[in-house]
Amino acid sequence: MPKLKTKSGAKKRFRLTASGKVRINHAYKKHFMRRRPQSMLRKARGTRIASAPDAKIIKRNFLPNA
After folding, report:
1. Does the residue 47 lie in any domain?
2. Which of 11, 15, 25, 42 has the fewest CB neighbours in a 10 Å radius?
3. Residue 48 parent element (H or E)
4. How many of the other CB atoms lie within 10 Å of CB of 59?
């Protein structure tokens, strides 16, 4: 059985915390900021923790060696 490779796109988008949770960036922050409410932009600062079902898929399919 060959070694499993980590998806290179996932390396740039996801990180694991020390406890094994998946940390992801907030969505809708790349462009068109002018038409978004300021409250939404404030809430979308930094990173957030992925939901448990999404984290399970990310760890199993995209970050097998993490």
Report:
1. yes
2. 42
3. strand 47-49
4. 19
CA gap 49, 22 in Å, rounded: 6
* Distance (Å, whole) CA 7 – CA 47: 20
What is the span of the domain harbouring residue 58? Answer: 8-62
The model scores a pTM over 0.70: yes
Q: Are 24 and 62 contacting, i.e. CB atoms less than 8 angstroms apart? A: no
How far apart (Å, rounded) are the C-alpha atoms in residues 23 and 50? Answer: 6
Give the whole-angstrom CA distance, residue 58 versus residue 61: 6
The per-residue pLDDT for range 3-45, each reduced to its tens digit, is: 889 999 999 999 999 999 999 999 989 999 999 999 999 999 9
